[in-house]
Design brief:
There is one protein chain. The longest helix has 22 residues. Helix 1 links the parallel strand 1 and strand 2. The relative contact order is 0.14. It is built from eleven helices and 13 strands. It has about 325 residues and is of the alpha/beta class. Helix content is about 40%, strand content about 15%. Helix 6 crosses helix 11. The protein has a domain of about 220 residues: 3-Layer(aba) Sandwich (Rossmann fold). Bound molecules: uridine-5'-diphosphate (UDP). Uridine-5'-diphosphate binds next to helix 6 and strand 8.
């Protein structure tokens, strides 16, 4: 198999590249390094079957050529991270909507299978946990920029499903839930790399809000496994599929656990949301996937526990 990964130098993309090469596939990556990093794939350079292109998906002639050379496209290039989204809403909307538009348009020419990366963020403020793929999306008002991310990803989903319905382009839409692990940067606001960096530096660990909000974290390796199985499963085509785990932890408990596992003496500091993001910021109290659909398709069985993840991330930051 030859795969094109847009955003291949990003956190998830770099792990996916590695797994594909390990299974004997060829990998082309297209990444403009806006949030990805060449360091993420430096160890893959020179591996047979690996090629990388530092450019944007907006370079349509190049994109078209790379899609032409591929059997499957993993479209992971996107603006990610709540902090980035709140600070750069124009960039977020343009990147997420336009990027998916051009990828689908070119993939459609030769009906190449496309995996569209979406997010649990699309469930928005829904309290109806666990979130089922066919549940209503409950987004906040447009002046609150956080919701631009969910909305841009929802448009991507609509467009992908429309291509499937109207033009028979094979697509799979995946909704990632808090995917974490080594190589994830804290620069765009993600909680685990931030807490770990703070804990190792002896700086205060900044828990936003009152710390009672919870998340269920999935190791990137388990997410990549799921992606590889889904592209080999014809019943996944035309579907929206949650990928995540159901084991929740509150942000206050997460800060404690990271402090403990890294033997840190950092204090834990509670920071109001208004200060952490922007005035009137709305957070989600819980985010848990319903996994019935993915289980029925590929018998999904995430292997790594939260402690496994935290130990690996602490080790990664220590070495860095
Ligand atoms: N968070 C936090 N401190 C940080 C960064 C994030 O307490 O330094 C909180 C954030 O407010 C949210 C949770 O951790 O409630 C997860 O945040 P992240 O951005 O990693 O993921 P998402 O909000 O997209 O689930």
């Amino acid at each position: 198999m030859r795969a094109l990964i847009t955003g291949g130098a990003g956190f998830i993309g770099s792990h996916l590249s590695e797994a594909l090469l390990d299974q004997g596939s060829q990998v082309l990556i297209l990444d403009d390094l806006s949030t990805g990093s060449i360091d993420n794939v430096a160890h893959l350079k020179g591996r047979p079957g690996f090629e990388y292109f530092i450019d944007s998906v907006n370079n349509e002639p190049l994109l078209a050529e790379l899609i032409d050379r591929s059997d499957v496209v993993f479209h992971l290039a996107a603006a990610v991270g709540v902090k980035l989204i709140v600070e750069q809403p124009v960039h977020t909307i343009e990147t997420n909507v336009h990027g998916t538009e051009v990828v689908l348009k070119h993939a459609n020419k030769k009906k190449k299978l496309v995996v569209i990366a979406s997010t649990s963020e699309v469930y928005g403020k829904s309290n109806d946990v666990p979130f089922r793929e066919d549940a209503d999306l409950v987004l906040g008002p447009t002046p609150k920029h956080r919701w631009a991310y969910a909305c841009s990803k929802a448009i991507d989903e609509f467009l992908a499903l429309a291509y499937w319905k109207e033009r028979k382009l094979p697509v799979i839409v995946v909704r990632f839930f808090n995917t974490v692990g080594p190589r994830q940067t804290g620069r765009y606001g993600m909680v685990i790399p931030n807490f770990v960096r703070q804990a190792l530096a002896g700086e205060p660990i900044t828990v936003f809000g009152d710390g009672t909000q919870s998340r269920a974290f999935t190791h990137v390796g388990d997410v990549v496994d799921a992606l590889l199985k889904l592209v080999a499963e014809p019943r996944a085509i035309g579907q929206v599929i949650n990928i995540g785990t159901t084991q929740e932890i509150t942000m206050a408990a997460l800060a404690d656990r990271i402090r403990e596992l890294s033997s840190s003496k950092s204090v834990i500091k509670f920071v109001p949301y208004d200060e952490a993001y922007e005035s009137g910021f709305e957070d989600m109290p819980r985010r848990v996937p319903d996994l019935e659909r993915i289980n029925a398709l590929i018998g999904y069985d995430p292997k790594q526990t939260l402690d496994d993840i935290l130990i690996q991330v602490i080790d990664y930051f220590r070495k860095k």
